[in-house]
Amino acid sequence: MHPDTTNKRLLLDTSPTIALIKRCSKIDIRLLCMTLIVLLSFPMRGSSQAQPDRSPNIILILADDQGWGDLSLQGNTNLHTPHINNLAKEGAQFQYFYVSPVCSPTRAELLTGRYHPRMGVYSTSAGGERINLDETTIADVFKLAGYATAAFGKWHSGMQYPYHPNGRGFDEFYGFCSGHWGNYFSPMLEHNGQLVQGEGFIVNDLTNRAMTYMDQNQKKPFFLYMAYNTPHSPMQVPDDWWNKFKDKDLKMRHQNAEEEEDIEFTKAALALSENIDWNVGRLTKKLEDLHLEENTIVIYMSDNGPNSWRWNGGMKGRKGSTDEGGVRSPFVIRWPGNIQAGKEIGQIAGAIDLLPTLTDMAGIKASTHYTLDGVSLKPLLLQEDSTWKDRLIFSYWNGKTSVRSQQYRLDTDRHLYDMVRDPGQQHDVASQQPKVAKQMAKAMNRWNKEVASQLNKEDKRTFPLGHPDFAYTQLPARDGVAHGQIKRSNQYPNCSFFTHWTSIDDEITWDVDVVADGDFEVVLYYTCPKKDIGSTFELALGESRITSQITEAHDPPLQGMEHDKVKRIESYVKDFKPLKLGTMHLKKGSGQLRLKALDIPGEQVMDFRLMMFTRVD
Predict the structure, then answer these.
(1) DSSP labels, 330-348
(2) DSSP reduced 3-state for 413
(3) Are residues 162 and 263 in the same domain?
């Protein structure tokens, strides 16, 4: 069970039934029983027995680092994305939909309906991407309402349970928990915490798994979160998709000559975008085959602006920026028979609106632990004449804030832009609109004080180990700290490993919190050339310790470059070998887990990737 006691945080509205029982308390017991039988014969909205026409399925598709302009839907003639275009044709498109400048904050906001600084998300790696455990997630809500819940792909909101997706309301998870992955072709992934081998190109594999899940759960409502990990780098593209672009002349280019566009990178991003579109088509075709199309809400969006300079509708900024181009995302939503086909919505909206919108559209009455920042977009989607108040949406990252109204954007330097007339943010109109500039600056100051100030980067949370409700705890190199001469394989830690371990004075540590006493089987993943085998090492936490030795050589080459279409900036990867260290008894409490060499007969101990703790008691 979720340690936050989900059932106490989410209360379905059953008061009408209770009131009726009270009124019937003095009636003949036979009448009371008949009344209850009649009531129970009607499935409650949100119950696991709800009929399909009363509880819509939901498929939320999230692309990774795909810009607003990376779809032919937006007028980009460099590529063709017919299946996503068709979602918009058969459903609705928000013209101005906003996410965060980078990956993990957007995920936090769409999962909770709240701005990410409120929930402790200050980084994209090494624990800073985790959502505070007292937050209610969208999966918590739908799971309690009787939905089957599943997440496939890139989680990027915490690895160790209860930060793990299986601890945040998702019954099923297949993918990886880090911020990016180093290999897209049959890589090491995990299935509900257990390490497994992927099958084929990762986005195709995730889609295959999702379609199988739809088969298995077609008789009950399901909430399916498809978190694709492309076109995030490394730019690994299957040949069938790359061959369409490698010699293609791109007509639409990035507009700012001061920022150089990497054409090969753009081609790879567009090829990956077409691959995503093909997989979106497979998902929608599966809905048709299962006769679920009419009763399924399908959403498509991205998590931030483009990860390179390329055509993006003339907007200023890219991934990492709080300007328009860094935070504006495509957003299409289809629900046949409910959302008017071809509808275009001009009001601003954002990732914080997903939880209240989807619960409202599904008819789920639920409460969350905290007040939401987002609002339900149901009136805009399902009503023709809707009174809608102007609002402000805030974008924040790395100490920089911007704020968007329906017409204006005030950037982090307090420049004001009329986004209707100047989407590229070329002309500061603060002097022409001093009242607007002052009002938006005041709102930004208040938001920074009330929301951004809650983000305490110095409040370093430990990594939970051995939660009694989950068998597996993975401790990767990503979350470790190297001491001495040990080096990380790359400055971007998410998919890195430790190398250059040459001294008994060096060690790797993790600040952990053992959640409950227990015995754990420990498996370490390593590589080591034949000439360096024989090193002994110790894993220790408090009085508990275990000693092992490298006795088998395993020296595979670095991988990744054979599939890269553009030279990567992240770490290359290896095929790491599992080594069983034995069973370790751990006592509840906080401490520093230490991995230290005792003897090094060769030049090095090993290259280290991760450890897996499996509860065996």
Answers:
(1) -EEEE-TTTSPTTEEE-S-
(2) coil
(3) yes
CB 119 within 8 A of CB 131: yes
| H helix intervals, 145-262 | 202-216, 239-242
Are residues 192 and 297 both part of a single domain?
yes
Q: How far apart are CA 393 and CA 413, in angstroms?
A: 17
pLDDT at 490 over 80: yes
pLDDT band at 327 (very low <50, low <70, confident <90, very high): very high
- Does 225 score more than 50 pLDDT? yes
Q: Is the pTM value of this prediction over 0.70?
A: yes
Q: 3-state class of 295 per DSSP?
A: helix
Q: Which ranges of 411-450 would DSSP assign to H, the alpha helix?
A: 434-450
pLDDT digit string, tens, across residues 231-261 = 999 999 999 999 999 999 999 999 875 678 9
- The residues, ordered by sequence, that sit 6+ positions from 121 with a Cβ below 8 Å of its Cβ are 104, 105, 108, 128, 129, 130, 131, 157, 455
* CB atoms near residue 487 (< 10 Å): 14
577-617 pLDDT per residue, tens: 999 999 999 999 999 999 999 999 999 999 999 999 999 98
C-beta separation of 153 from 206 below 8 A: yes
- Domain, as residue range, for 286: 57-385
Give whole-number Cα distances, 104 to 108, 358, 413, 477, in Å.
6, 21, 24, 19
Say if CB 206 and CB 152 are below 8 A apart: yes
Q: Which two tokens stand for residue 533?
A: 């085998």
Q: What is the CATH number of the domain that holds 269?
A: 3.40.720.10
What is the β-pairing status of strands 148-154 and 222-227? parallel
| Angstrom distance (rounded) from CA 484 to CA 267 | 42
What is the rounded distance in angstroms from the CA atom of residue 285 to the CA atom of residue 271? Answer: 21
CB atoms within 10 A of CB 213: 18
Whole-number pLDDT of residue 317: 95
Distance in angstroms (rounded) separating the CA atoms of residues 533 and 362: 59
Shared domain check, 296 and 174 = yes
What does the block give as tokens for 154? Answer: 């890139």
Cβ contact 508:608 at 8 Å: yes
Same-domain pairing of 374 and 327: yes
Residue type, position 495, single letter = C
**Residues 349 and 401 reside in one and the same domain:** no
Distance between CA 328 and CA 225 in Å, rounded? 20
Which residue reads 């992955």 in tokens?
A: 181
CA distance 425 to 305: 16
Q: What is the DSSP letter of 480?
A: -
Determine the Cα angle at 104 with ends 142 and 122, to 5°.
120
Contacts of 86 (CB under 8 A, 6+ apart): 284
